[in-house]
Design goal:
The chain has 13 helices and 13 strands. With about 400 residues, it is of the alpha/beta class. The protein has two domains: about 150 residues, Rossmann fold; about 220 residues, Alpha-Beta Complex (Glycerate kinase, domain 2). The strands form three sheets. A six-stranded mixed β-sheet has the order 3-4-5-6-9-10, with helices on both faces. A five-stranded parallel β-sheet has the order 2-1-11-12-13. Strands 7-8 form a two-stranded antiparallel sheet.
Length: about 400
C-alpha cells in the first residue's frame, strides 16, 4: 500500500510538515507496513518556503529589511544552491502577519522590503527567483519593491515619491536608469493563488484593500492611484499587463513583477508540486491524502487540495481531504478529483481547541479513514486487502 500525504499547513496551528506527520502517524497505526510518502505542500502563501526547503534540502537565509510600514524586520527566505534558486515569501517582509489589526494601513504600506529580499537573492548569485506572494499587507502595485531595486518614481518637482499606494497618485515620471542590471539575467516566477486584475471592481484595491485597513474612500483612491501607476508603466515599458490574471495579486506586486521583471505567473501549488516532485511521488500510489485549514468553494481557485487532486487525477489515484472545517460549496470539488472530504472534529469544538489539538485530531481522522478503506476492501468481491497490495 503506497500512500502520498500532501497537505497544506493549517493556519495558526500546524505547518504542512506537522500536518503530514500527524496524518502519517494515524495511518501507520492501521497500516504498519504501508509505504507513506510525506510531501508537505503550499499554494504560494505562508509556508511555501518551508514546504519547498523541507522537500529539497534547501537552506534558510535571513535578511534585515523594511517591514510594510517602514519598521525593520528580519525576514527569512529560501536558497537552493544546486539550482541557484531563491524562494521569496513576500509575507516575510511585507505581510499582513507583521501588523496588528489596529496598525493596518493599505494606503501607506509598502513592498519595499520584498524588493530588498530580491536584492539579497541577487547578491547570493540567484539565477531563478520564485516570488510567493500570498498574505500581503500592501496595496502599492509593487512600486515599493521596484523602488528598492532602483526604479525612481518621481513627482512633478522631480522628487522621489514616498512609499505606499496613495502616493502613486502624484507620480509624474518613472526613471529606470538605476534599475539593478543583474535583474536582466534572472528568471522570475510568481507563485500565487489569486488571479485578479490590478484595477476595477475585481482588482487589488476593491477585493483585498478592506482587509488591509482601507476605507471605502481609500479603496477608490487606491484603485485610481494604481491605474495612474499602470499608465506610466505602460508608457516607459511599452507593455500593459494591468488586466492580465494575477496582476492584482499581493496588492499589485504581481503587476510590478510582470511589468518590470517579466515574471511568469503560475499557480503556487503547481510551483511547489514541481519543486517537490509530487507527480513522481503520486505515480503508482494507491491513495493520496491532502488537506487545508478550510476546505470550501474558494479551494477551486488554485489552493493546495485542488492542485494536488488535479495531479492525482492524471494518474487515476483517489484523493481524500482532511480539513479543519468544511465550508460552503466544498462539494463542487468532487467534480475535480476529490473523492471524499472529512472535517477535523467529530463533534462541537471551538476554533482555539481545534488549533491546539490539531495533531491528535488529524491522527484520529487518519486512523478512521484507514479503517474505513480497509473495511471497504474486505467487502469488495475478489479485491485484495490493503496489506496484500
Amino acid at each position: 500500500m503506497k500512500i502520498v500525504i500532501a497537505p497544506d499547513s493549517f493556519k495558526d496551528s500546524l505547518s504542512a510538515q506537522g500536518v503530514a506527520d500527524a496524518i502519517a502517524l494515524g495511518l501507520a497505526q492501521v497500516w504498519p507496513d504501508a509505504q507513506l510518502l510525506k510531501c508537505p505542500m503550499a499554494d504560494g502563501g505562508e509556508g511555501t518556503v518551508e514546504a519547498v526547503l523541507a522537500a529539497c534540502n534547501g537552506q534558510w537565509r535571513r535578511t534585515q529589511v523594511l517591514g510594510p510600514l517602514g519598521v525593520a524586520v528580519e525576514a527569512r527566505w529560501g536558497w537552493l544552491p544546486q539550482s541557484r534558486t531563491a524562494i521569496i515569501e513576500m509575507a516575510e517582509a511585507s505581510g499582513l502577519q507583521l501588523l496588528p489589526l489596529g496598525q493596518r494601513d493599505a494606503g501607506s504600506s509598502s513592498t519595499f522590503g520584498t524588493g530588498e529580499l530580491i536584492r539579497a537573492a541577487l547578491d547570493e548569485g540567484a539565477e531563478r527567483v520564485i516570488l510567493a506572494i500570498g498574505g500581503s499587507a500592501t496595496n502599492d502595485g509593487g512600486a515599493g519593491a521596484m523602488q528598492a531595486l532602483g526604479v525612481a518614481l518621481l513627482d512633478e518637482q522631480g522628487q522621489p515619491l514616498p512609499l505606499g499606494g496613495l502616493a502613486l497618485a502624484k507620480l509624474a515620471r518613472i526613471d529606470l536608469s538605476e534599475l539593478d542590471p543583474r535583474l536582466a539575467g534572472v528568471r522570475f516566477e510568481i507563485a500565487a493563488d489569486v488571479d485578479n486584475p490590478l484595477c476595477g471592481p475585481h482588482g487589488a484595491s476593491a477585493v483585498f484593500g478592506p482587509q488591509k485597513g482601507a476605507s471605502a474612500e481609500q479603496v477608490e483612491q487606491l484603485d485610481q492611484a494604481l491605474g495612474h501607476f499602470a499608465e506610466h508603466c505602460a508608457r516607459v515599458l511599452d507593455r500593459d499587463v494591468r488586466d492580465e490574471p494575477g496582476s492584482g495579486a499581493a496588492g499589485g506586486l504581481g503587476f510590478a513583477a510582470k511589468s518590470f521583471l517579466k515574471a511568469q505567473f503560475r499557480t503556487g501549488v503547481d510551483v511547489v508540486a514541481q519543486l517537490t516532485g509530487l507527480a513522481d511521488a503520486i505515480h503508482g500510489a494507491d491513495l493520496v491524502i491532502t488537506g487545508e485549514g478550510r476546505f470550501d468553494a474558494q479551494t477551486l481557485r488554485g489552493k493546495t487540495p485542488f492542485g494536488v487532486a488535479r495531479i492525482a487525477r492524471r494518474h487515476d489515484v483517489p484523493v481524500i481531504v482532511i480539513a479543519g472545517t468544511l465550508g460552503e460549496g466544498y462539494q463542487a470539488l468532487y467534480e475535480h478529483g476529490i473523492d471524499a472530504a472529512f472535517a477535523l472534529a467529530s463533534g462541537p469544538i471551538t476554533l482555539q481547541e481545534a488549533c491546539a489539538d490539531a495533531s491528535r485530531l488529524l491522527c484520529e481522522r487518519a486512523q478512521n479513514i484507514a479503517r474505513l478503506w480497509r473495511a471497504a476492501a474486505r467487502q469488495t468481491v475478489g479485491a485484495p486487502s490493503p496489506a496484500a497490495r
